[in-house]
Prior knowledge:
- This protein is about 40% helix and about 10% strand.
- By secondary structure, the chain is of the alpha/beta class.
- The N and C termini lie far apart (about 65 Å).
- The relative contact order is 0.16.
Amino acid sequence: MKKLLALLLLFPYSLSFGQVSTVDSLPKENLNWYNLSPKNDKIQGVGVDRAYSELLKDKKSKKTIVVAIIDAGVDINHDDLSSLIWVNENEIAGNGKDDDNNGYIDDINGWNFLGNSKGENINEANLELTRIVRNYSDQFEGKTATDIPEIDKVNFDLYSRAKNERLEIDKKYTAKAKKYEELKDNLSEAETVLKKELKKEELSLEDVQNFSATDSVLLKHKSTCTSMYTRGVSVDYLEGIVEYFETYTKYYTNLDFNPRAEIIGEIDKDLKNNNYGNSEVKGADAMHGSFVAGIIGGIRGNGIGIEGIADNVRFMVLRAVPNGDEHDKDIAHSIRYAVDNGANIINMSFGKYYSPYKSEVNAAVKYAASKGVLMIKASGNDETNIDKKTQYPNPITEDGSRIPNWITVGANNQLMGKKLSATFSNYGIENVHIYAPGVGIISTVPDSQYDMANGTSFACPVVSGVAALVWSYYPELTVGELKEILLSTGTNYKKKKVYQPGYTKEEQTKTKFGKLSSSGSIVNAYNALFEAEIIVKEKARKVAEDALRNEIQKKKG
């Protein structure tokens, strides 16, 4: 779910500075911090700048790495991204034909699985649990477990769990919307009164702080404005929060809202059918996907905006993640499209807790693994142990085995300390592999603008960027070797005592950083490139030795 990027991923952890045309008005300490080094800069970034200056200054990358971004869409015309968009050279743009016979018409930059051939597109969607309730309500509504035959009990249990959770979500977000509506009204009233008292059309924090009041009502309004302005909160910001919370009941949990049926048709059970969608990869809300792309490889050294991580990368755009939960079918087809059309890495900054067609996604993930594609996924922003609460998609197959070409990423803060892990980050020593910067990240958003946000959604592309960087300079590495390098060379904090995600001022549970992921580390580009050089040289040495040995054998023979 991607609606209102700043609110969804920042709130309540920090505030959005809003979309800006240059990065000058955004906090300098946040600009490109993920590229900094824990050794040189004392910042818990991933050492990208150090790698370029010390390891890569006399080297040229050997291969352009294609990263498929499965997301809500990407602004392919952004000034910091446009020259990096993957182009399907076997397709002729706009001729209405499938020139390369890959099953997709005019797929120049990727494919949009959230649309139809008429150009109509889905933006908002249900949560998966809402779709489950709707799909099974005719069969199970009003029945108890004793009414259900054994063959239907698994689906009945799924329906019952989804139904109860849907009601809880409705209640929770209705209350949140009401709370912030009241805050908005209080601030609006306070501003109206103080503007009249001060004879000003607009108020600043300084205006409010300098206002001298003795009347209890005026003091109350001064306190309200001071508190809100100090945190950077405005009426518009609170209105945005209310709107975000209302989307839950308007779209996410609304059983009567079903744009899939209207725009694409009820085709989910026909899992093999990929005859839907269109070639418009930006979509109506490309903020999230554009943000992801900028981190991976926003143009370096162009004097504008941000510095992405990889310097020889192309973005294949696959629009499959609406404001709501993605459909398993769309994700499976996106993965297969990425593999069949030459992607080396797939970035997946999305996730959900129900997956009715997981087997189809598993088959696609296995296919990607068989073709040597590395899959990198965000762990999620629910401060949840995903060893205990399963999140989808994941690399665990029906028999409990794990698909190897997969990395799941948690999010860390800038500074070393007990709050090293982002408070919102999902974690798990079995199901999260590594951490990466994901707090106060500045990146690209549509219309050649920039913004700042938090989320494991943005830690994930840090790892994708590092993977692309390493692979572009050392394409001799297998996908298994690359994954092992990334996980084994991170900045290791296994024994560091930190707060477990979900910490608040009232409740702070300490744990070891090594219990939050299997590696207990933060990905490190410098270390990874250093190790890659050693491994590739060793491989080359062995190849040379084998060649010499074969030559000697021939001469002997």
